[in-house]
Amino acid sequence: MRVLITGISGKLAQQVALELLARGHRVVGIDRRPWPECPSAISIVQTDIRKPDAEEAFRREHPEAVIHMATVSHVTMRRDERYRINLGGTQKVFEYCERHGVPQALFVGRHTYYGAVPDAALYRGEDEPPMALESFPELADLVAADLFAASALWRFPERTTAVLRLVYTLGPSLHGTLASFLAGPRVPMILGFDPLFQFMHESDAVRAIILALERKLRGVYNVAGPQALPLSELIRVTGRSPIRIARVLHPLLLGRLGLPRLSSGAVAHIKYPIVISDASFRQATGFRPEFGEYETLAAFRSASPPPGEAVPPRPPPATGGPGTGGPGHGNSVAGEPVAGEPAVGLAPAANAVPARSAPARLAENGGVEHDAAALSIAAARAPE
Description:
This protein is an alpha/beta fold. The protein is built from twelve helices and 13 strands. The strands form four sheets. The chain has a seven-stranded parallel sheet, sandwiched between helices. It has a two-stranded parallel sheet with strand order 7-10. Strands 8-13 form a two-stranded parallel sheet. It is globular and about 55 Å long. Residues 317-384 have low confidence and may be disordered.
């Protein structure tokens, strides 16, 4: 299959491209950013998706499928530029698909589409509307892009269109919203809150995207990994230190003292959970995550250890053969076991902090009342 990937220079998109190449697909990418280590078997058009050179790539390559991954978050761009890339770019991609007869389009979105609000249902289905845009306007462009992509289902019924809303990805690439939030030695929490966080290993995200492509899914699907964990558990297992901030003080402290910078709207995401139901996607594809929640956190911690903890030595890179995505990738994306072979190195790191009981964590959290189910889940699934 000839597959065109927009935003191919992003870390997750690179892994998707390499795995598609390993599976025998022909891959073309469009991105205004370079990909210096790109294998020669993948051709890249280095341009903005809204420029004529991008449409020329559609005309020249005649892709059989497009995976649209050229969206950016609020922390990387100014608001006006985000709108041009996220909404304007998405509009152009579907315009090119229609003009050049692309039979399949896949939009890769985010589960933050639903918004973090105090009165939402615990599990959000695909029919749930976006919420909290008035308090977090930085999400508006991503929500608009998602809705525009979903509208292609009825505007262009002859095309196989799917919208995937992925949870946070985490893994050894240290890329993504959650990885950035956990990057420093201290992680903020709002006093009295400990929301559930839903995430998946980046290799599982790659598998999910390719499954949706190969199964030719049509519709809107939530995509999730293992069960959610409280934010305090993420902080503990990755070896970070929680900094509990009173609600009235977070505008003064966030972005200082080594804490990540968060907009006022983003603070809601460390107060209230966004937990999605992925039952429809699992039923349609048979997808099951290969990495558990603690395995995923261990992979992140191994690549980004806390201060004073040595980085484990990396094994020598394997020599990749033709079509394998280059050295070190073999026949799978980085960190993903080859089908039919035993997974290696997926156990929690030896230096990971051992799990403690729910009462012990409650004592450590200063008596904050978590959701009892969340605590029992975390305790039950913690590594021995």
